[in-house]
Write a structure and sequence with these properties.
single chain; 289 residues; alpha/beta; Pyruvate Kinase, Chain: A, domain 1; five-stranded mixed beta sheet; 7 helices; elongated
Length: 289
């Protein structure tokens, strides 16, 4: 059985830990709400991009190698993990999904985030790495996007998918696999050739280069949206982890308090018996004398 001092120290430590977790929960909730309220131009970007694509001939667009590719291997799998704390389980799920997607003999894994790198290092797997997105983020996104497009056009891989945590709600985040290349035209399909501007449009240096530039721009947008969802999932997962940890501390504290009061009561009872016994002995000595 623990001593009263140890039990008291444990209760004090858990109180401090609970206060720290409550502070972290509040900070995480504020970050989550701020990110949810961020206006990053999604509603304005897609209509503008669609207007550019509508000026191009449909057959030219759909014959571009970034959009049409009959080969599916080798493949590049981009796994987006988080470097923040309390997210080991979510990072592990992302990396497990990426490894399931990989054909070890053909496919390449690109890891974004140090935690994902550590996971593959422990498993002695080969990979390429990119840094996690900074507060600005555009430079890293542009670098990653251009790298993927360059390697894809060189046929070093014929398909690119990204594995990330997709935000549904604070309570729910799913590991999602989304195709990046060949570029999915679902969001733009139906907007091609809506106008006849392409008949009098001068394009330089070539229509293929223009399409490549537009797709690279849209690819940056898609990756940014994925990072945005991943960051929301990160805050939500951390919030849920802190909440579960807080509940666990409450449960442990109940047990510690019960043990503390039992020990205190047992000690007090022992002292009372000892005092009573000593008084009885003292009384007996007086009577005998």
């Amino acid at each position: 059985m623990k001593s009263l001092r140890n039990l008291k120290n444990s209760l004090a430590f858990n109180k401090d830990l609970d206060d720290l977790m409550n502070t972290s929960k509040i900070a995480t909730m504020i970050q989550l709400r701020q990110l949810q309220g961020t206006d990053w131009g999604e509603e304005r970007f897609l209509p503008e991009l669609r207007s550019f694509f509508s000026m191009l001939k449909k057959d030219v667009v759909y014959n571009h190698p970034l959009i049409v590719n009959e080969n599916t291997t080798p493949k590049c799998i981009v796994a987006i993990t988080s470097d923040e704390g309390f997210l080991g389980e979510l990072n592990a799920l992302i990396m497990e999904a990426a490894l399931r997607e990989q054909d070890v003999t053909k496919d390449t894994i690109i890891v974004v985030g140090k935690k994902g790198e550590q996971y593959l290092d422990e498993m002695k797997k080969s990979y390429l790495s990119f840094p996690w997105m900074s507060s600005d983020g555009y430079g890293e996104l542009d670098k990653l996007s251009r790298y993927l497009v360059e390697k894809y056009l060189k046929a070093e891989f014929n398909q690119v998918v990204v594995v990330y945590a997709d935000f549904k709600s604070i309570m729910v985040q799913h590991v999602r696999i989304q195709k990046l290349l060949p570029f999915p035209m679902r969001e733009l399909d139906g907007f091609l050739e809506q106008s006849k501007e392409h008949e009098k449009l001068l394009v330089g240096p070539s229509r293929n280069k223009v399409i490549e530039g537009l797709i690279n721009l849209n690819l940056i947008f898609l990756i940014y949206r994925i990072f945005y969802s991943s960051k929301l999932s990160e805050f939500s997962a951390r919030l849920m982890h802190l909440e579960r940890s807080g509940q666990e501390i409450i449960r442990v504290n109940r047990s510690l308090r019960l043990e503390y009061f039992k020990s205190a009561h047992s000690l007090a009872d022992k002292r009372i018996r000892e005092i009573l016994s000593s008084r009885i002995l003292a009384t007996d000595k007086k009577i005998r004398s």
